[in-house]
Amino acid sequence: MDYELMFPGRFLKAAELKGRDVTLTIARVELEALPTDSGTDKIRGIVSFERTPKQWVVNRTNAVCVVAMFGRNTDGWVSKRITLYPTTTRLGKDTFDAIRVKG
User: Fold this and answer.
1) Backbone phi and psi for residue 67, each to the nearest 5 degrees, phi listed first
2) Over 43-69, what HEC string results?
3) Are strands 41-49 and 94-102 parallel, antiparallel or unpaired?
4) pLDDT tens-digit profile of 71-90?
5) How far apart are CA 58 and CA 4, in angstroms?
6) Taking the mean position of all CA atoms in its chain, how far away is CA 25?
7) Contact 102/20 with Cβ under 8 angstroms?
8) Cβ contacts of residue 27 below 8 Å, gap of 6+?
9) Which of 24, 28, 41, 99 is CA-nearest to residue 65?
10) Contact call for residues 44 and 32 (beta carbons, < 8 A)
């Protein structure tokens, strides 16, 4: 078991994909102020899906992919299916688990 699974939360984590591609249908896209490590809030895009309570915090890399598929207006993303997959990404010297979009 990946240790990340010991700390469930409302947002989807790469470990929860269990090494597989997962296709989900977008139910809604909203903005929300989320706390950062520095103690301030940052406005982030939050995607909710049909048939799961998990939400996905969209970073710029993934947003660019979704825009390429469905357009700039996030209202047009609703009811569209996207495939997410787990991977890793580097930030400086560190490597982190990540979720990316196929398409």
Assistant:
1) -60, -40
2) EEEEEEECCCCCEEEECHHHHHHHHHH
3) unpaired
4) 999 999 999 999 999 999 99
5) 19
6) 13
7) no
8) 48, 49, 50, 78
9) 99
10) yes
